[in-house]
Amino acid sequence: MTRKDSSFLIQDELKRYNRQIIMEGWGEEAQLRIRNSTFFIAGAGGLGSAVSIYLAVAGAGSLRICDHQEVELSNLNRQILHDNDRQGRKKVHSAEERITSINPNVHTTALEGRINDHTIADLVADSDIIIDCMDNFETRYVLNRFAVKRGLPFVHAGVYGMAGQITFIQSPETPCLQCIFPDAPPPELFPVVGATVGVMGSLEALEALKYITGSGILLKNRLLLWEGDIMKFEELAIEKNPFCPVCGHT
Fold it and tell me: Nearest Cα to 93, choosing from 77, 84, 81?
């Protein structure tokens, strides 16, 4: 697809995205905003797989996917960006190939590296939103600090077994991740079912799309908890910590 002008949709896009364009409050204008946006996806694992795929099929203009790991056999129960033949390949390159096969109109940037305080600015670059698809709080706190500093929207989700959590963070309007989780849990090899990351990753993609299009109500100041074993959603109100070392001064 050749885009001669970023201010209108071509026929291919009107047909591909028709079922979402016809939604009330969406239309071509919202679809253009998605097409003209850049999404930073931190992690090409389980959550990152669902987020990347659903943003790609929704018509995301640009995906910046960051991960430093290689595809392993133990990943394949949940990381649907990858398959059996891609074992040993870097996840970001596997992800780039899969996204291109799903929607060649999406520009995917494979960022092979680690996220830390020294690298994050270059990795995020001109992204419009940060989506947390990590499996550890050390890196999540890096993402959170950067999002607060730059005033970028930040979608957080986490999973464990058949359970998950998600919230939408935008400082100074909402509590930051450090307010919600002041202390990181100890690192562990935690259990997870593939469908769990599918659920939570899909919700993350939806929150990102809602933000970009201005549709619906975001999960601001709310932590949504999902217990898949009993199929129950619960919502908790969350508040800023005035003494938070990251956002307490904002």
Answer: 81
CATH value at residue 31 = 3.40.50.720
DSSP assignment string, 168-199: EE-TTTS--HHHH-SSPPPP----B-HHHHHH
Q: What pTM value is reported for the model?
A: 0.96
**Does 242 reside within a domain?**
no
Cα–Cα distance for residue pair 19/52, rounded to 1 Å: 19
Instruction: Identify the pLDDT of residue 204.
Output: 98
Judge whether 40 lies within some domain. yes
Question: Which amino acid is located at 246 in the chain?
Answer: V
Reference 190, options 85, 46, 24; nearest CA is 46
Domain limits for position 166: 19-237
Residues linked to residue 232 through DSSP beta bridges, in sequence order:
227
The least confident of 14-23, 61-70, 118-127, 179-188 is 179-188
Q: What is the pLDDT of residue 249?
A: 74
